[in-house]
Amino acid sequence: MATHRVKKSGKDPPPFTRINNSMLQDERLSFKARGLLAYMLSKPDHFRFYLDELIKHTTEKKDSIRTGMKELEQLGYVHRYPVKNERGKIMSWELDIYESPSLRPESGFPVVENPTLVTNDNILTNDKRFNKYIAFENIENPFFKTF
C-alpha cells in the first residue's frame, strides 16, 4: 500500500495534516468523498484501511463509505487492486491513495498475450490454428509479395 503525496519538508511529522488544496476544491467530489480522502490522508503513509475500521470512526454507514470510495476511485484519487497468492487467489485488497489524480501514473495499454492483427480485411494472427484459413502463397496482393 502506498500513499502518494506532494513533497513535504520536516523531520518529525507535525501534529496536523498538510494536504493539497486542489482535492478540497475539486467540485467533482462530494463533501463525503472529500472528508473521506482527508481522513485517509491524515493517517501515516503505510496505514492499512479496512471498511469496518472506517465505519467505527464515523457516523456514516457501510454503503455510504463504499459510495465515497467508489467516487474516489472513479476520479483517480484512490487506486484499488487485488493482492494474489501464487495460485492466483485474491488474498486481500490494497489501496493507493493520491492527493491529486494528476500524481497517479498513466495506466497505458493493457497487456495482451497473443494479439490478433487486422489489416485490409485479412486477419493476421500468431495462433497456429488459424493458419489453415489463410494461405499466404495464394494471395496476389503486392503488399504480401514484398515480404
What number is the mean pLDDT?
A: 76
CATH class of the largest domain, please? Answer: Mainly Alpha
Order of helices and strands: EHHHHEEEEH
- The CATH topology of the largest domain turns out to be Arc Repressor Mutant, subunit A
Q: Could you tell me the radius of gyration in angstroms?
A: 24 Å
Query: Which stretches of 5+ consecutive residues score pLDDT under 50?
Result: none
DSSP strand tally: 5
Oligomer: single chain
> Which word captures the global form?
extended
Query: Roughly how many Å apart are the termini?
Result: 49 Å
Q: Give helix % range.
A: 25-40%
Approximately how much beta-strand content do the residues carry?
15-25%
Number of helices: 5
Q: Summarize the biggest pleated sheet.
A: 3 strands, mixed
Spatial arrangement of strands, main beta sheet: 1-3-2
Overall tally of structural domains: 2
Structural class category? alpha+beta
- Second CATH tier, the architecture of the largest domain: Orthogonal Bundle
Give a quick precis of the structure.
By secondary structure, the chain is of the alpha+beta class. It has helices spanning 21-24, 31-41, 51-56, 62-74, 142-146, and strands at 2-4, 78-84, 90-98, 116-119, 122-125.
